[in-house]
Structures are given as C-alpha cells and as structure tokens.
Recover the amino acids of this structure.
C-alpha cells in the first residue's frame, strides 16, 4: 500500500542528491584549482596533475550517477501515481459494479475486475523495480565514492612532493577529502531513508 511516507522519503532522498551534486561541483572546482597550481610546477612533477584529472573524471561520473538516481526517483513517483490511480479505479469499479445501475453479467464483472487487478499488480511490480534500481544506483554511488577517497589520499600524498606549492596543494587536497566525506554521509543518509521506506 502506498503511504504518504513513501513520498516523503523520496523527497528526502532527492534532497540528499542535491547535496551530492553540490559537493561534486566543489570537487570539480577544487580539482581544477589544483590543476592550475600543478601547471605552475615543472613538467617532471606531473603526478599531482594526473590525480587532479582523475578527480575531475570522478566528479563527472558522480554527476552521472546522481542524475541516474534522480531519474529513477522520477520513475518511482510516476509508478506510485499510476498505482494509486489504478487502486482508486479498482475500488470505484467494485462499488459501481455492485450497484444495480449497471447491467453487466457476472462474467463481464469478473473480467473487468480481473483486468484492474492485473494492472494494479503490474504497477506495483514497476514500483518495486524502481525501488531496486534506486538502491542499486545508490550502492554504485557509494562504491564510486570509495574511489574518490583513494584519489583524495593520492592527491594528499602528491601534494607533499612539491615543496614550493605544498601548502596550497595540501589545502586543496584536504578540501577534496572533506567534500568526499560529506558525499559519503549524504549517500548513507539516502540509503537509510530508502531502506526505511521499502
């Protein structure tokens, strides 16, 4: 049965996704900033530069995964609405068919109610499939975020190899690391919300 809490949970997950997207943009900008600093460094120290390129790729993939969850949430909302509509029609149809105003044979009534029940089961199945897809994509986001943590550590290590820019690069590395920690928190909250609603 669809409840008001289902729609509330979807709204909360959507809010977490907005936070993830904002954090992803911060990572992208921090990586861009780090890349500019890395360009000031001689070409034999390109380790940090390649890490920042990977961080930018990480940020772009994070955006794609977040968009994928947002799309699935849209599908879930649509499926929830369809499910409610069919349920309402089934209840209305049952009341109407049992009234004396409509002359239908028992076979016609049974067939009509059976079709409505089949549509309701189909809508429920689609709704459950959307829920599974959301959870799967959230898990993919979490795995991808693990990669981001490794990149942040790598950026931190690389930042210490360049003495004249160590302070700037370390600052950027720490910012990236903090943002990734915040992304992990958002993902975990979204997964908890989704698990409670399921």
């Amino acid at each position: 049965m669809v409840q008001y809490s289902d729609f509330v949970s979807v709204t909360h997950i959507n809010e977490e996704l907005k936070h993830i997207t904002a954090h992803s943009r911060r990572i992208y900008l921090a990586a861009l900033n780090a890349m500019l600093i890395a360009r000031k460094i001689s070409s034999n120290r390109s380790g940090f530069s390649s890490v920042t390129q990977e961080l930018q790729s990480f940020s772009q993939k994070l955006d794609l995964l977040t968009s994928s969850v947002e799309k699935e949430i849209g599908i879930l909302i649509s499926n929830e609405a369809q499910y409610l509509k069919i349920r309402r029609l089934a209840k209305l149809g049952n009341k109407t068919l049992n009234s004396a105003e409509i002359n239908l044979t028992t076979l016609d009534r049974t067939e009509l109610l059976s079709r409505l029940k089949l549509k309701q089961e189909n809508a429920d199945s689609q709704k459950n499939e959307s829920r599974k897809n959301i959870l799967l994509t959230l898990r993919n986001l979490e795995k991808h975020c693990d990669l981001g943590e490794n990149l942040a550590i790598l950026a931190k290590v690389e930042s210490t190899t360049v003495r004249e820019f160590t302070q700037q690069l370390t600052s950027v590395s720490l910012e990236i690391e903090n943002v990734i920690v915040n992304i992990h928190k958002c993902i975990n909250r979204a997964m908890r919300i989704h698990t409670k609603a399921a």
